[in-house]
Design a protein that fits this description.
Number of domains: 1
Distance between the termini: 60 Å
Shape: elongated
Radius of gyration: 26 Å
Helix content: 55-70%
Structural class: mainly alpha
Number of helices: 4
Largest sheet: 2 strands, antiparallel
Strand content: 5-15%
């Protein structure tokens, strides 16, 4: 029987017991197969690693905001010394208070 564990961190084995099926074109399969061979992996190993890498990247892009030094400075200044609310903002705040039910 084939070993279905993989090591993510030294000393920690993670059991692979989930299946993921996907339909791809013959071109996509050939491309993935070639890449897997070049990396010395099986097609399944290559696809699993690629899916994990793409998923982690997508999650990171949606969770982490990167600011330039100028943007970071402007953000900090706005937090430390926010502008005074204008009449429109005060009116909206009053409207919000009137229409929002508090518990």
């Amino acid at each position: 029987m084939r070993d279905t564990t993989t090591r993510k961190q030294p000393g920690k084995a993670v059991r692979k017991n989930e299946r993921l099926e996907v339909r791809v074109s013959s071109i996509q399969k050939a491309l993935a197969q070639e890449a897997a061979i070049l990396q010395g992996r099986t097609l399944s190993e290559f696809v699993a690693a690629s899916v994990q890498q793409a998923a982690e990247q997508a999650i990171r892009e949606h969770k982490v905001m990167t600011l330039t030094a100028e943007d970071s400075r402007a953000f900090a200044e706005a937090l430390l010394a926010p502008p005074t609310p204008n009449e429109r903002l005060r009116a909206l705040a009053e409207r919000y208070k009137r229409t929002t039910v508090t518990s």
